[in-house]
Queue: 2 jobs
Job 1
Amino acid sequence: MGTTGHDVVIVGAGFAGLTAARELHAAGCDILLLEARCRVGGRALTRFLPDGTQLDLGGQWIGPAQTRIGELVRHFGIDTYPTPEHGDPVVDYGGERRTDVPAEAGRLLAEIDALSRQVPPERPWAAEQATAADRQTFASWLAASGHPEQAQRYVGRVISGGLLAGSPAETSLLETLFYVASGGGVDALLGYRGGAQETRIVGGAQHIAERMADELPPGALRLGEPVVGVEHGADGVRVVTRLAAYPAAHAVIALPPVLAGQLRHDPPLSALRAGALQRQAAGTALKVHAVYPEPFWGADGLSGLSTSDSGVLTETVDNTPPGAPRAVLTAFAYGDEAVALRRSSPEERQAAVTERLGALFGERARQPQEFITHDWLAQEWTRGCFSAHFAPGGRTAFGGLLHTPEGRLHWAGTETAVHGNGYFDGAVESGLRAARDVLAARTPSSTG
Amino acid sequence: MGTTGHDVVIVGAGFAGLTAARELHAAGCDILLLEARCRVGGRALTRFLPDGTQLDLGGQWIGPAQTRIGELVRHFGIDTYPTPEHGDPVVDYGGERRTDVPAEAGRLLAEIDALSRQVPPERPWAAEQATAADRQTFASWLAASGHPEQAQRYVGRVISGGLLAGSPAETSLLETLFYVASGGGVDALLGYRGGAQETRIVGGAQHIAERMADELPPGALRLGEPVVGVEHGADGVRVVTRLAAYPAAHAVIALPPVLAGQLRHDPPLSALRAGALQRQAAGTALKVHAVYPEPFWGADGLSGLSTSDSGVLTETVDNTPPGAPRAVLTAFAYGDEAVALRRSSPEERQAAVTERLGALFGERARQPQEFITHDWLAQEWTRGCFSAHFAPGGRTAFGGLLHTPEGRLHWAGTETAVHGNGYFDGAVESGLRAARDVLAARTPSSTG
């Protein structure tokens, strides 16, 4: 294998791969970006109903602390708008219907926030008590926390579901705290105004990725060309797709862990990387969209936001874009509830969700005009959302090598990020870091 | 896709795939068995040093309760011999060097055994308290068990390491109890005489697999032909390798979960199966063999068996075959210790292991003539040993579908077994079950 081909081949045109491609191109590298799908954007996917109603089927929000993705939005002059927050949220807490988070749950959230500040996101395995915190599930920690059971239940769903897209059984206390620390704390992550859900993108989040792709040189992006394997040696790499093989000096793998593990590597990946990839299951979030003629919940003084400690849905949000012809209520199920919904037929699934929407927002919510689901866990080129997380014990054992290059292979993707892990912002950070790693590793002779 | 090809294509020629192939052939099916490696046997691999000393680099033992694999051994008239147990074991317990397991650890083991009897291996998710037991790691349960800390530490290593090849952080209480129940209880699993390590195979465990392969019809086994993907439809399947595509009425995927997840499926696998496969990481066992001119430990009255609650090795065993020219001491590291050894260079690894062997068995153990490691986690066509286990939360959410066919795709492998899960016996059981499923699913027109 020589370096007669490209300087760098990047695998995966989500935000991480697009960022790495842009950075490396800007630094004068000859790059090729390969994408299995016929579109860019990874876990961002924007679609429009025939009447023009915009739906973000995947990631959609940007918070003020997420400076890297924010910079891109500004760079492209993309319009944004604040997530609407008129009216009251519904907080379904222990069978009680409230408009605020009870103080007892707030205290538990504050304790998690305080604990997260003891976990350095750059080196979570080096935190004091890291091993002990990685040996217990977040569920066990909650159960032993001394907080009221109701608060445990609510906070477990809001944190492990709403943030990590799973259940408190699936990740350790350490992994949970790392995620919170990586995102800047509980308030930043859960919040709308001032928080991670503050801003939406006019035209949808996928649009940012499309603008990033537009700036790549002609021919540098190949869509609809799944990568099958990567050969790598001391002199270079060869990235093999269903259509061709592309030699290059370096490769950047910008895929979710489970997809990175599906590539055929020659020579095979190291034992430790295999162990790391095996231990990062993706979240099970199921995001559904119910479309109505109008945001009727506003007439009842409701914002469309809800959080629940029971029922099939953990949260809902008014997802109506400004000026849209119709109104969109978007709802999320996580963990065991999301698994149960997937065991049901599409009809049963819709019935279960709309019944719950009815309980939260009244009779009219039971009868959406449209009901749209996009199951990322079923998508061959994603396999789970929002992002992947280490199973208990995994972060301390394997976390340290996530962004360590393996020879001429470099690793990106939001799961490898230090800040904004799991978000667009982390994906961008990881792409910047991988690009820096490649540039640092380039030999004088290959830098031209 | 039609059924003009084979009746059944089986992917993977370990004990599960070989069993399915034999059963289906015996039932009159036209079968094809595809194997990536140039040998059969999966996680059984027997090699001989130039002087004839036999080494089982993977699975090697059979217990009296493991009737399915035992029947095969008898069927082929393969000779066996008991694992030697002359002399005393070393039990390194809290810095004390003993020859038996302390009563306090025995009581903890007995409690685990009793709990495991409450978990039906056919339906562990239906056990009373299954959800609670799946939400906590085995480490958390141990810590809250009320048993002495030293017993927790010893038993954690012996059970999660010696049986599940990982750390108590990685699996839930439920998964641990399921594994114990599946194997017939703590005594059966940990024991030598009367237990799962009672019997060794003359000529090595791989030899059983070779005999199974010998009985297949000519041309039915294709070695060195990795399967890349499986196309499946209502009428049949097409199993795609690097060399060809084989149409068939049914396919049996007899691979460890992580490899099953690496196949390209068209249409893609269901969301639930993807979720299940993502959550089953394989064990991290590192099995090493130190070869000496003679079993010098016998002169000190030692059996070569050891278990330790500290140090890099959790257990050792005298692995000298009868009549072998040299003596073999085999040692196992698991979990964090196995990960740490993999971070070291081969030289550092050998030094760390032989230093520990010296501490357990005296100076002479520090200077083996040969030191052989075979890292199954690094093996492209295995990726971890002994077997895979669900991360916390996984068994209750996803365990129920492990042996549910997906259309014309059937699932085998020891990880799908009810009894002997993780052992040869479970692999054979899974192959028998998958064959039965295929035969039950065959339409009258295709049974010829």
Job 2
Amino acid sequence: MSKLLVIGCGGVAQVAITKCCQNSAVFTELCIASRTLSKCDALKSALEGTTQTKITTAQIDAMDVPALTALIKDYNPVAVLNVALPYQDLAIMDACLAAGVHYIDTANYEAEDTQDPTFKAAYDKRCAELGFTALFDYSWQWAYQEKFKEAGLTALLGSGFDPGVTSVFAAYAQKHYFDEIHTIDILDCNGGDHGYPFATNFNPEINLREVSAPGSYWENGKWVETHPMAIHRTYDFDQVGTKDMYLLHHEEIESLAKNIPNVKRIRFFMTFGQSYLTHMQCLENVGLLGTEAIDFEGQSIVPIQFLKALLPDPASLGPRTVGKTNIGCIFTGLKDGKERSIYIYNVCDHQECYREVGSQAISYTTGVPAMIGAMLVSDGRWQDAGVFTTEQFDPDPFMEGLNAWGLPWTVVENPTLVD
Amino acid sequence: MSKLLVIGCGGVAQVAITKCCQNSAVFTELCIASRTLSKCDALKSALEGTTQTKITTAQIDAMDVPALTALIKDYNPVAVLNVALPYQDLAIMDACLAAGVHYIDTANYEAEDTQDPTFKAAYDKRCAELGFTALFDYSWQWAYQEKFKEAGLTALLGSGFDPGVTSVFAAYAQKHYFDEIHTIDILDCNGGDHGYPFATNFNPEINLREVSAPGSYWENGKWVETHPMAIHRTYDFDQVGTKDMYLLHHEEIESLAKNIPNVKRIRFFMTFGQSYLTHMQCLENVGLLGTEAIDFEGQSIVPIQFLKALLPDPASLGPRTVGKTNIGCIFTGLKDGKERSIYIYNVCDHQECYREVGSQAISYTTGVPAMIGAMLVSDGRWQDAGVFTTEQFDPDPFMEGLNAWGLPWTVVENPTLVD
């Protein structure tokens, strides 16, 4: 029925593409484009014979807007699914506008070099305006609102799990469970165990930023900033068990605050094991997390990059990670004049994901919603002129998609978050 | 009355030399010799005017036996005090034999490169014979027994605190407090705080070896080897408080087992704070304590050496370290047919040491006994032909020396070591 151009061929991209190929009724044709053609060709080879989707590949530098525009025009898809690197978001949006196709991504824009003066100045200005440290934010992409509106095109931002599914959960709760949502607590629990004393699921520099940045949450119409890791809660996660969580800033808080009427408080919590935190603290104490080069035997070495070289390759964790993720939202509010609270969540098993798509749950829970977002934009159910986040469309078809494509969800009443 | 040649000008050497200069009645003339003449000259300048000892200096590579022999013959001291590096012990002993002077040191021999095939083979053979991992041992220097005997010269080994003072405590307990010593527990407690989350008092590679090597103790005539840090005790140290300690191998166990008759068990415990151990564990977990080079961006880098470059310079800890050391021995046994137990110990204050000699207690507690050992050998009270450890001479003049020269000791009855 429709053609999709997918940009990127990393872990999340491979899950999204594999899922598109399971959904050949919608995605009759698909082009995999990335900087490294051989990776695209290898994935194409692995999928051919398992799918009716007609797969092609292309080599592209996504930062080269004219070349990307030409590729899009040439392939002529309904939409572009961007599962490349976040710093390429704006270039790909520009190419979509130039070529006249819809746009879907999973992660918001950030400069490749966050110390780049233009990015840094804009980032600092925005943090000052907001009154807190917006580690991740949509501002750069929301600036494309008018351009997509005028072009009559849809840009669907952040169609991963969190952000993405968590915002769809909010829209679904609003539609079916509440007259008024008062509080939202987004819980991101990874109960996986890779068997190493210490390893990181992705670049340790990003892990570090998460735990060392101030936290922030939305309350009564304004942002409240906290010291890093200052707010701690525990929750007894279905199929995982009781875990420690810490409040962090997360980008969907900002869009949910705009789009969920009357909401009084929105927070985001992520689980961190004590051993992980102890290692991070020790490594920070001895200077191993430093991002500035030191002189060592006449060589210039950035400590965190040396640490990264010592740690297990994140890509090697997939086959050895066991356990489950449990990610969802606790909503409280009013329904028919009575107080209500529910937890909507998905449980995803690392080993099952690995067997199905060759990736653990971290990539799986992002790649599946990327495919669902691309499907809904492509088949017209989620089309509107402008730039949107996932809570702005009808949640029902997305929620059906989650059940159908590997991320089934559950609703329980009266969840208990423990101080 | 006598001339002393001191080899070395590091932290311990500076304390020993300063103490010799406070004791001008014995040390009328002193020569400071080390590889770096400017360090010797700087120390000479700092001490002149404060002492009646006549100080001279000399440049020497202690590994060059003919040159060192010539220097000794030329200066013509009564004895040589070796407070240089442990790998230089044998060369200095050879030179003392060639020049016909007495020898005193504080630390037992170890090859500069512990992976050197000759050293490694001998070390492995000895460990196999003993049935345990003798991280430090006197075997290389005990092999000089006949040479010193024939030459009619004294070699006094290990005249620091532990080994050194702790063995004198054993001889003193044997002479004055017991008919029979049954057990000896040597306790080494550093209650100092340098204010850093993590730093090491000396080369982190040596610290690491201590905590990662198997422990061992002497019991009923043989060695018992334990897993690293497997045996834990606590003790309430006078002026420091209750501390966690772990059983380690230490070289004086072997000499005490030979020289204290009827002793049934000898153990050595060192205090380690939980934070120190946690940091060491985390650093080991991520591979930062590795001693083999890894390839990093085309450069060959040894992880523990990179770590060392990140940590505070051990020499910088002196002025900022507060608190006290408490080092001593618990003896149990029989006196007049009744059971008895005592703790003989010294308490040393880091800041007081720093004010007096510009070094914290770690160097002070080694440097002062080095001077006392050199004094007793020089003035003839501890002279005998052969190679000796400190428990083999009359302890009384050494114990008087400790009280006189800054390391006063205390004896308490019925100490309680807690499991």
